[in-house]
């Protein structure tokens, strides 16, 4: 079991992902923008962050850079979970410190469960 922070501006997607994570025994919370993600990580522990890139205010790239720059959060696995599928976005996310890059259009519930569990076991 792990604590997962989901960061996405889509309330519908958040509901689905949080419900899926909880159904598989994880604790999960969703925030809808970068500022709230960083505030959450200052106050609570997360074992994994699922991070969208396209959000209002602080975007996912900046959130990722700030997570990696903070010694208290630098080791948290961060999976970018984005609709952006161009190789330049994948490269930029990897350079900013993403552990993995998953494309939302390729979302598969069974695969998602296994991949999340793998990251939480490593944490």
* Biggest pleated sheet: 5 strands, parallel
Strand arrangement in the largest pleated sheet: 2-1-3-4-5
Shape: globular
Q: Report the CATH architecture.
A: 3-Layer(aba) Sandwich
Q: What is the helix/strand order?
A: EHEHEHEHEH
List keywords for this structure.
alpha/beta, 123 residues, globular, single chain, Rossmann fold
Describe this structure in words.
It is a single chain. This protein has one domain (3-55, 69-84, 97-122): Rossmann fold. The protein is an alpha/beta fold and 123 residues long. Helix 2 (34-43) packs parallel to helix 3. It is built from five helices and five strands, in the order E-H-E-H-E-H-E-H-E-H. The protein has a five-stranded parallel β-sheet, sandwiched between helices. 46% of the residues lie in helices and 19% in strands. Helix 4 (87-96) links the parallel strand 4 and strand 5.
